[in-house]
Amino acid sequence: MSGSKYQSFVGSSSIQGGNATYVEAYYEQFLEDPESVDPSWRAYFRSIQDQSVQREVAHSDVLARFERIARDKKPGAVTVSQESFDARAAEKQGAVLRLLNYYRVRGHQAAKLDPLGIAPQALIPDLDPAFHGLDASDMDTVFNTGSLMHDGGDRLPLREIIRILKNVYTDTIGAEYMYITETAQKRWIQKRLEGAAFKPKVAPEAKRELLKQLVAAEGIERYLHNKYVGQKRFSLEGGDALIPAMDEILRGAAARDVEEVMIGMAHRGRLNVLINVLGKSPKDLFAEFEGKYSVDALSRAGDVKYHMGFSTDVEVSGKRLHLVLAFNPSHLEIVNPVVEGSVKARQVRRHDDIGARAVPVLIHGDAAFAGQGVVMETMQLSQSKGYATGGTVHIIVNNQIGFTTPNPIEANSNHEARTSRYCTDIAKMFEAPVFHVNGDDPEAVVFVTRLAMDFRNEFHKDVIIDICCYRRLGHNEADEPSVTSPMMYEAVKKHPTTMALYTRKLEEEGAIAKDEGATLVKAYREGLDKGENIVRTTLGLVGNKHTVNWSNYTKGNWDDAADTSVSLETLRSMYERVSKLPETFTLHNRVQKIYDDRNKMAAGELAMDWGFAETMAYATLVNEGFAVRLCGQDARRGTFFHRHATVHDAKNGENFTPLRHLDQDKYKFVVNDTLLSEEAVLGFEYGYSTAEPNTLVIWEAQFGDFANGAQVVFDQFISSGQAKWGRACGLAVFLPHGYEGQGPEHSSGRLERWLQLSAGNNQQVCVPSTPAQMFHMLRRQMKRGLRLPLIVMTPKSLLRHPLSVSTLEDLTKGRFQPIISDHDVETGSVKRIVFCSGKVYFDLYQARLKQEIKDVALVRIEQLYPFPREAYEAALAQFPNAKDVVWCQEEPENQGAWYQIKHRLGAYLKPQHKLLYVTRDGNSTTAVGYLKVHNKEQEAVINGALTGGKPAN
Length: 953
Prior knowledge:
Layout: H1 3-12, H2 20-32, H3 39-48, H4 59-71, H5 87-106, E1 142-144, E2 155-157, H6 158-169, E3 173-176, H7 183-194, H8 204-227, H9 242-255, E4 260-265, H10 270-276, H11 282-289, H12 295-298, E5 310-316, E6 319-325, H13 335-349, E7 358-365, H14 366-371, H15 373-381, E8 393-398, E9 401-402, E10 405-406, E11 434-438, H16 442-459, E12 463-468, H17 486-494, H18 498-509, H19 516-529, E13 538-540, H20 568-578, H21 589-602, H22 610-623, E14 627-632, E15 647-648, E16 655-656, E17 669-673, H23 679-691, E18 695-700, H24 711-718, H25 721-725, E19 732-736, H26 751-756, E20 764-766, H27 771-783, E21 790-794, H28 808-812, E22 819-820, E23 832-836, H29 840-851, E24 856-861, E25 863-865, H30 869-878, E26 884-892, H31 898-907, E27 914-920, H32 931-947, E28 950-951
Parallel strand pairs: 4-6, 4-7, 7-8, 8-12, 11-12, 14-17, 14-18, 18-19, 19-21, 20-21, 23-24, 23-26, 26-27
Antiparallel strand pairs: 1-2, 3-11, 5-6, 5-13, 9-10, 15-16, 20-25, 22-24, 27-28
Organism: Hydrocarboniphaga effusa AP103
EC number: 1.2.4.2
Keywords: Oxidoreductase, Thiamine pyrophosphate
């Protein structure tokens, strides 16, 4: 506050300095929520924060000056009128407002959240009226309620204010939201929590319906436990309130005309959700327990039953909803981005920009939510360009135990499994509200679930429901949890189930008859005996105009000769359209040179480079009705400065994406620079590709090695999803690969890993060596009647290599060649055939030229898997006098393609052939870090391939 403003305050305030405590509290309230204070005070407080003053005034400075007013008794100070506050009354009023604020900020720490009651109840001094100078004599005094959202007027006795605050903030719901910076969001939550809507009276019929949900939740677990003794099912028992919470989500979705709800969850409680939420037939589940599978299921490798997904249509409140439970491996939380990506694809299909028609719901375990980095990565994507899905409803089934390590709700206990107070604390990074709720209060669970759905609908951002409960059994049904958690499980044994507690409550209220609970239990069990679902019946896969028939994309084969050529007229027409920039657009000089060269390439005056060919692949696909979605940490310009799918005005920084203007649909071409994440982003793109077969979805690693950070996505989804779950996807992955002396982390795309993961024609692994090969490979991915993953070792130095170029004719008449043979040598004079892939071919070619070698043929294998047997045999037959067949690679012997394809190279040789190989020596690292050493190794590899080699056996 400037000196003049301070003196103005002293000289004109309508209250004397002794009331500074009140002013301080009111100022605190203003900082929390400007709209909650009187307009005149709001104007004044804003004036002292005027940003036009030379020095920014700290909050502490302002409060210090308020206190100084209270101390100073300067001559000429204004005398208080009869209407002014008494100093002590003002101090008390300020204390009340501070108490209100602390209940909002810290009330959750004193809430009754632990059903077992084993976590020591926290003592929060800030919530004690005495801490603020309030005592028993103040309880019946009427105070201004400030911003408290209640229906009792703006003045209430302190006793009533405290009753409201305790009821709202320290009962069985603990709300965390005061860290949110958006005032509108905080005020919305306060209105819902503190107003008349808080814990509204539940109609008897609604209570009976809630009881039915709990009967079902407990009933299926007890039934499976008794019928299939000892079999793993990862019981939900103790977290039964999840089922009514999910039912409330479906009701809320139906009320808002949502068309699809997609659920991601780990294995705990999964079978319960399948039966009681999605309506899967108990008979089908029982068949799985008994080892009976359909013929279709037996055609795949399959997976355990608590990993399997499910999709169906159900009727809720007279509306039809499509429900999906995503397939999920036992890798904690990895399903999160997969669900988000699939939901995004469904939203795009509907042009649903705000996420009103397709909603993601993620169900977590407490320890996994706190411990797995992919949770943070996924939430970091939640509001980013190209990845926002309109908000996710997160439900944490908080068992207070992670695997075998107890993790009590109360933070003052010694935590072994996390540092943060709550498992949900990561949500504060993203200002997502958190509603902790006692799982043994199912009405409160339903209330916060409704609140969460409403918040998501209003603000389109993530929201967390933390159902604080317990795990009645061990990690699985064969585990003995009391070995490591004796005190907790002593309490669990004595604790009634949620259903039993709620049944007793309703009986005591008179909401149900004395034996009505038992009747519901019997009816549910009888339904299971008949193999019938009496909670929710599916309608089957009814479908709608947005439904995709995936059978059209799983019947093709790898050898389909898809026509990927494009006429010259079409190419030039497409280029003319994608090369146009706004008239006032100024390109950077280096980018202008690229555009000038591309103009020459389109005219046939200059050989075609990779950036041109890739751009034309995308343009022609969009022109033919496909969509393209390309993402990566530097995807718009390309890490190696070759793509420039998006260009930036050199004068004003505005950007322009020419390919987006080929079609009026803004989703036909999407290119995103992503946050620096591999795991979540790749998981998202995989999920997107499983839901949208007509979009060429591409994830590009900044360097191929960076795929390490997303290895679980490759292992558990991309390479094996088809075999385990029958989930097809056409995701393409670009992994820059090439040994240019850039050290261990910037050389290898780990080719050996993708070949090791290849079996049963599950994916393609390609190493294109020319722009035309890239063009045809990308077009083949969409034009062929098959959608399976494509792993591409993309080039780095080849992007500008003078020999790695193509012509327009290569695009108009060519097609992707799994093997490119050598037509520069006399076939009869060849004594040695060197097979290789990628950049090393050009090094070999230049060395052969320099050394004037005439009897060595260089053959490129561009598709390493599925191995092109016929083309390989044709290449061998082309050189009938060859004796040596050599495999050459830049990678160390224990890496690259050698160990994965040597049996294929040897299988089709003739008796006169001798198989040799040339590699770097085996190494524990992908490459050396010294350029001189690299060059020496590279020279040895090239010379060895042309004249030497090690025997394969």
